[in-house]
């Protein structure tokens, strides 16, 4: 049975790497997929991983009908065995409905990869619709870690090094760029709630004010 599968996790947990591995393993067996992405850091029409691998992809623009695009490719005689969609959190919810239609009407597997929640710990529209419609949701095996050592479950945004909880939902950026105007850091829920990034935690640990003081 073909499936709509949502591989979800935080930033930097290996989603794009897994997408590229799936493409590689299928192409080694002669299978051809349509590879969609949206707003990848490497630029338009690219699917890239931090391990340095990159492949060409179709940019899933905001108004693009993904179902019609795939039907169009098949009508031209292109072989389409499956779909990969990276940065799926950025899709409009209608586009996720179109992916479900690809599974049900064209009987193709669709593998979507994306982060579940934004920097405010709110669902992205694309991720919300994937959670609603997916046959299966898979958590990535290589979890990213918070600075405290716990599993990272949340994405923090920093502006000028400070964690923020207000702003546009979509701002393309990366982790491990603390000096960048807009950067990201993965955190556990406890430290996301307390707005403690690795930088502010380090500053806090150095401050005698934050240490417990005995009253007698
Ligand atoms: N220099 C490196 N050596 C080994 N593994 C790395 C290196 N850089 C990144 N990685 C791995 O790549 C993962 C990020 O992969 P990527 O596919 O770009 O993540 P995502 O798409 O989820 O943001 C990291 O969690 C880490 O496991
Ligand atoms: C949390 C959050 C992230 N983004 C952007 C930042 C990156 O460009 C992508 C995530 O890519 P990755 O391959 O999973 O690292 O999403 C955003 O626009 N808004 C956010 O709140």
From TrEMBL:
Protein family according to the UniProt entry: Belongs to the thymidine kinase family.
Nucleus keyword on record: no
A Pfam family recorded for this sequence: TK
Gene Ontology BP term (one): thymidine metabolic process
UniProt name for this protein: Thymidine kinase
Lineage: Bacteria, Bacillati, Actinomycetota, Actinomycetes, Kitasatosporales
Keywords: ATP-binding, Cytoplasm, DNA synthesis, Kinase, Nucleotide-binding, Transferase
Oligomeric and partner information: Homotetramer.
InterPro entries for the chain: P-loop_NTPase (IPR027417), Thymidine_kinase (IPR001267)
């Amino acid at each position: 049975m073909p499936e709509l599968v949502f591989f979800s996790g935080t930033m930097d947990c290996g989603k794009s790497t897994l997408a590229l591995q799936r493409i590689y393993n299928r192409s080694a067996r002669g299978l051809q997929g349509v590879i969609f992405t949206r707003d990848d850091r490497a630029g338009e029409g690219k699917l890239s991983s931090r391990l340095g691998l990159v492949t060409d992809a179709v940019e899933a623009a905001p108004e693009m009908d993904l179902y019609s695009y795939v039907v169009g490719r098949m009508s031209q005689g292109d072989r389409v065995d499956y779909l990969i969609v990276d940065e799926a959190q950025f899709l409009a919810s209608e586009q996720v409905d179109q992916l479900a239609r690809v599974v049900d009407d064209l009987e193709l597997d669709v593998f979507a990869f994306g982060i579940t929640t934004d920097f405010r710990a709110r669902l992205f529209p694309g991720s919300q619709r994937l959670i609603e419609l997916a046959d299966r949701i898979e958590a990535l095996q290589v979890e990213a870690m918070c600075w405290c050592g716990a599993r990272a479950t949340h994405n923090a945004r920093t502006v000028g090094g400070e964690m923020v909880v207000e702003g546009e939902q979509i701002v393309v950026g990366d982790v491990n760029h603390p000096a960048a105007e807009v950067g990201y850091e993965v955190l556990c829920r406890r430290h996301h709630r307390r707005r403690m990034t690795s930088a502010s935690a380090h500053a806090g640990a150095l401050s005698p004010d934050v240490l417990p003081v005995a009253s007698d």
